[in-house]
Design a protein that fits this description.
Shape: globular
Structural class: mainly alpha
Radius of gyration: 26 Å
Strand order of the largest sheet: 1-2
């Protein structure tokens, strides 16, 4: 009677000829850590690339990142000081318009950068090591940090120049900056898909959002609007962000209309839609 071959160890499979196959490899923690580390290195490399191409090749470099918002605030302050005697809050036009313009500018800069992330890094996205998520995260991190630095620099300088005894309440300021970044990431990610699939969306979005500069509470307070204006502009998330920002610089201002939950939900819904659509259509966008 022929003897049976010894039983294969657990996890070993046999081919039709009877030869054993090695057990299937399962992902290890070390492999996951290596992938995460590789992704982190990719994001850092993309950040350094954009820093060198965007700021390293222009005369002045990062100085322009400070001068542009500073010039906007100075022109706003000078122009409105010729029309009205005092701003809606406090006595300094510089501080009032800076607390409205800077969080708005943070949103605009970061959302526009994220929306054009694939186009900016398209040649590099042909490599397997670089993903669309790396490209968006790199632009989000770099532009957020740049605008936060500019914001700190300008607000500190303004408080020193106007010799104000402003008592800062940092939690609302931090919340306003964080909400502006989250909203910018959500809008930018969704627009990155729409602009990639429909090139005309870039022009359309620019036209649709042009009134935001006038409708986000930079020049006025929500409380000074008529009831109809309040009912309409309440749905603008940027109105909540500028109001929250000003509560950190003006202790007497309450901004009871601000709803952090509403802004967070809008941002997360937009971000979720953007991530889902980007995961589905990023190859179609890159192959165009």
């Amino acid at each position: 009677m022929a003897s049976l071959p010894p039983a294969a160890p657990s996890g070993v499979q046999h081919t039709a000829s009877g030869s054993a196959l090695p057990p299937a490899q399962t992902p290890t923690r070390a492999g996951s850590k290596r992938r995460r580390f590789a992704s982190l290195r990719t994001v850092v490399a993309l950040i350094l690339r954009e820093m060198s191409t965007r700021y390293g090749r222009t005369p002045g470099g990062y100085i322009w990142a400070v001068l542009e918002p500073l010039a906007a605030i100075l022109f706003l302050s000078l122009g409105f000081s010729l029309i009205i005697r005092t701003p809606s809050l406090g006595t300094s036009f510089l501080l009032f318009y800076a607390t409205g313009y800077l969080p708005f500018d943070l949103y605009m800069q970061v959302s526009n950068a994220c929306a054009r992330a694939l186009g900016f890094s398209k040649p590099l996205l042909k490599y397997p090591a670089v993903t669309w998520l790396d490209a968006i995260l790199a632009r989000f991190i770099l532009n957020s940090l740049t605008n936060i630095f500019v914001m700190l620099l300008l607000l500190t300088g303004i408080l020193m120049v106007i010799d104000s005894r402003t008592v800062l309440d940092m939690p609302p300021v931090i919340e306003a900056v964080a909400l502006s970044m989250l909203l910018a990431l959500g809008v930018g990610t969704l627009n990155c898909v729409l602009m990639g699939l429909y090139p005309l969306w870039s022009v359309t979005w620019g036209i649709l959002t042009r009134p935001l500069f006038l409708a986000s509470g930079i020049f006025f307070l929500y409380d000074d609007l008529p009831p109809l204006g309040q009912d309409i502009l309440w749905y603008n998330p940027l109105m909540h962000i500028t109001g929250l920002m000003r509560t950190g610089f003006y202790p007497s201002y309450t901004a009871a209309y601000v709803n952090i939950t509403y802004v967070t939900l809008v941002s997360l819904v937009l971000l979720f839609l953007g991530l889902v659509l980007m995961g589905r259509y990023h190859r179609d966008i890159l192959n165009r």
